[in-house]
Structure formats: structure tokens, C-alpha cells
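Whiteboard transcription, Tuesday session. T.W. wrote the C-alpha cells on the left side:
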């Protein structure tokens, strides 16, 4: 409700928490780098100007938390190829303008292809029902939060002319890869509350142990973020690779069990390239054998050359930004040649992309 929202935006509480953060940083006595892995966290941090009230030597950066940004060019090319063959391709608005090797889905639509922007997987299945004589492909992107609803549609007997081109990604393995990168310096993770509502925070137990890095699951209101940061700084001060759920009103240890079961009934993990970052084992979600008949890659012979793509244009540092090694304003193209109207890299296309969020909220939040 509105009251709840206000409670989590209370300026007095925010001030108490920033004082607590300052005190913790004094105790730690050296700069601290925190990574979060969620576009919604970046939006909250930028929108409420939280970086301006954080202690100076506490850096909070967004890692690979934008599923659209890490969608690989050949995946976009596959969707474009299907659309150009006269099939209906439905996808989320965020994906529409992401450049492929030669064109985006928006370009394909300008040239006459039938590309539809939808808000959900079920809306894409409805199109298939309305157009029984056409093949309708849902180009599915996003992390666990959107993969679960895709799975729900596939388990509820969708029309036969419906299929899924999955570019769904799974966050935890990407956190592992980023935690291991020699040039990425992360003292702790602010784990994404949204993904954890599905998978549960228990998932991070092995992670904190194996990578000896603390993690705190946080929500998306200013107080949630500040509170989660304070818990994380306590772990860092105590040199403890602890795990805490600071978002208990939405996240449990087990998560949403039925949604999780459905997710793993429909999807398997496989290794895949995350655009600009790395080839990440087990971080792409593909349809399982039981659902292969709904897999667009099984159903159609998609003619794309996976080697043709140049993953990022030369001056775009989107990959470094998503690996926590740079900020958008370090990119020479930021807000100049690269804008949301005319994006060079995927980080400027998606509403979850760091570059777009920074530009939207005033350049250097
Ligand atoms: Fe890439 Fe544009 Fe971001 Fe620069 S501003 S890193 S070109 S997306």
C-alpha cells in the first residue's frame, strides 16, 4: 500500500541509516566496493540519488544485472531471422531496439516484418491463439523473474503454433564469474530481491562460502537499499562471508516453490556468451527435453552465423561496466554519440541498463 511505500522512504530513517553507514565505514577504515546485480536496484539508487548520501569511500556498482544488456547478438539475429521469414515474433519492449549484427527487431519491423511488443509471455500465447494460421515465436528475455512466467505459459498447454526462442538468463553463475574476475574488486554483493523471490535466498549460501564474499538480499525502496548496505558493511567489517535476507517481506529461504519447480521442469541451464562479459557456464536457460517441441530452435532451421557478430562496438565499454570495472561516465560516447534515442551499446537501450539509467537521472547520480 501507499503507507508501506512511505514507510520505506522515510527521510528520518534514511538519515539514521546513512549515519550508521558512515560509522561502519570509519570502523572499516578503507574503501569498500559493493556490487548489486539488478536493474531495479540501480533504478532505485539513481532515482532517489542514494549515491550522493552514501559515504565517499563506499562505491556501489551495478554488475551484470540487466538481462537485455547481456543478450548476445546472435540471439537477436535469430529473432530477426525468424521475423524476416514471415513469422510473428513477440518480445518485450526493452528488447525491441537492441541491435543485432545487422539490425534490431525494430529495423526488421520497419522493413515489414511482423514484430509485436508484449508485456508478458501469456500475451504472446494469446497472439498465437488469435492467429492460428501463423507461427508465433516469443523471444523470451530476462532472469528468473520473467523465466518463471514463461515456464508457467508452457506448462499450461499453449497453442501448437506457439514457440519460445529463449534468451533467458540465470543470475547466480554470472555472479560467480564476476566474483572471480581478476580486475573486478568486490567486497560484497547486494543480491537481487526480485530473482530471490522465485529462487529463494538459500541459493546464495554456497556462493558466499565458495567465494568468501558476503551477500545481503535487499529490496528496492531507499530504506531497503540503505539497510541492506548497512548489514553488508557489518559483514565486511567483521571479515565474515555471511548471508542475510534483508528483504523478508518478499523473499524467503526457499522462494516460491511451485514457481521454482515449474521453472526447472521447463528449463535446463547451458553455457552461453553474455554479451561483452564472458562465456558463462550454466547461465543460459534453454527448454528442457520435455518441452523441446515448443523450442523455436528445434522447430525451425534458423539461419544465423554465430561467429559473425562483433559483440560490442570498439569504444563501447558496456562489458567493463557490467563487470563492475567502470562507470558509464568513463565512456567517451556516454550521452554524446550514445543516447537512448540512438544507442551504441545495449546498456543504453534497456530501462535496466546502467548507461540509460545514469543518463535518465541526470548523468552522474
Ligand atoms: Fe556502451 Fe553507450 Fe554505455 Fe558507452 S554509453 S558504454 S557506448 S552503452
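and on the right, the sequence the group agreed on:
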Amino acid at each position: 500500500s501507499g503507507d508501506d511505500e512511505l514507510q520505506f522512504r522515510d527521510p528520518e530513517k534514511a538519515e539514521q541509516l546513512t549515519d550508521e553507514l558512515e560509522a561502519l565505514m570509519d570502523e572499516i577504515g578503507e574503501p569498500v566496493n559493493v556490487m548489486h546485480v539488478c536493474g531495479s536496484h540501480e533504478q532505485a539508487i539513481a532515482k532517489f540519488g542514494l549515491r550522493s548520501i552514501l559515504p565517499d569511500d563506499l562505491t556501489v556498482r551495478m554488475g551484470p544485472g540487466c538481462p537485455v544488456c547481456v543478450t548476445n547478438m546472435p540471439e537477436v539475429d535469430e529473432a530477426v531471422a525468424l521475423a524476416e521469414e514471415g513469422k510473428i515474433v513477440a518480445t518485450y519492449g526493452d528488447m525491441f531496439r537492441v541491435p543485432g549484427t545487422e539490425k534490431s527487431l525494430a529495423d526488421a519491423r520497419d522493413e515489414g516484418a511482423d514484430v509485436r511488443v508484449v508485456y508478458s509471455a501469456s500475451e504472446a500465447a494469446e497472439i498465437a491463439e488469435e492467429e492460428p494460421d501463423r507461427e508465433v515465436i516469443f523471444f523470451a528475455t530476462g532472469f528468473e523473474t520473467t523465466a518463471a512466467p514463461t515456464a508457467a505459459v508452457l506448462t499450461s498447454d499453449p497453442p501448437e503454433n506457439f514457440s519460445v526462442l529463449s534468451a533467458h538468463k540465470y543470475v547466480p553463475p554470472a555472479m560467480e564469474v564476476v566474483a572471480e574476475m581478476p580486475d573486478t574488486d568486490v567486497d560484497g554483493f547486494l543480491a537481487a530481491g526480485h530473482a530471490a523471490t522465485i529462487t529463494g535466498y538459500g541459493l546464495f549460501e554456497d556462493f558466499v562460502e565458495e567465494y568468501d564474499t558476503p551477500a545481503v538480499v535487499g529490496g528496492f525502496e531507499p530504506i531497503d537499499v540503505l539497510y541492506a548496505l548497512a548489514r553488508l558493511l557489518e559483514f565486511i567489517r567483521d571479515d565474515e562471508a555471511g548471508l542475510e535476507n534483508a528483504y523478508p517481506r518478499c523473499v524467503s529461504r526457499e522462494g516460491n516453490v511451485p514457481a521454482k519447480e515449474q521453472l526447472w521442469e521447463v528449463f535446463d541451464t547451458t553455457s552461453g556468451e553474455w554479451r561483452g562479459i564472458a562465456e558463462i557456464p550454466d547461465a543460459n536457460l534453454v527448454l528442457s527435453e520435455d518441452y523441446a517441441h515448443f523450442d523455436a530452435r528445434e522447430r525451425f532451421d534458423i539461419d544465423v552465423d554465430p561467429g559473425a557478430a562483433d559483440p560490442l562496438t570498439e569504444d563501447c565499454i558496456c562489458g567493463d561496466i557490467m563487470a563492475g570495472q567502470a562507470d558509464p561516465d568513463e565512456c567517451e560516447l556516454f550521452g554524446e554519440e550514445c543516447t537512448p534515442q540512438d544507442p551504441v551499446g545495449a546498456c543504453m537501450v534497456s530501462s535496466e541498463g546502467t548507461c540509460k539509467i545514469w543518463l535518465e537521472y541526470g548523468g552522474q547520480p
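Someone added at the bottom: Residues 92 and 118 are 5 Å apart (CA to CA).
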